[in-house]
Every structure is written in structure tokens, then in C-alpha cells.
Write a structure and sequence with these properties.
By secondary structure, this protein is mostly helical. The protein is built from four helices and no strands. 14% of the residues are buried. It comes from Corynebacterium sphenisci DSM 44792.
Amino acid sequence: MRLTEFHRNVLAEFGDVQGPWLVGSHVLTGFGVTAAEAIEAGADLREVWWALCRDNDVPPERWLGPDEAG
């Protein structure tokens, strides 16, 4: 996953206001840091995206993002 895809998924799932707020404020379960901090530290973007999905009860069928969902 590329950073542009990560951000596209965040905006599509959580919206223009809540999405960026979650990335910068929500401490991810399993990472112990925010998504922004995990990305800055070099974490796998797909794992960060999936952690956001898990923590926010996004149904698994939407974890692939808007372009890949069936």
C-alpha cells in the first residue's frame, strides 16, 4: 500500500474531518502510537490501515478500501 492509497482509504471510510483527526489523534491498539506516528516510524501502511479499521469497528469487507471492495 502506498501513502496516497492509505489516505484515500481513510478519507473514504471516515470522512474529511474525522479521518485526519483519527490518523493524528487515535492511539492504535497494538501499536501504542497514533497512525501518523506509526507511519513516521516506518510501520507497514497496510497494517496501520487495518489497525484503524479494527479499532473503529469497520466491517472487514471494507478493509480493502473503496477501489478494491467487492
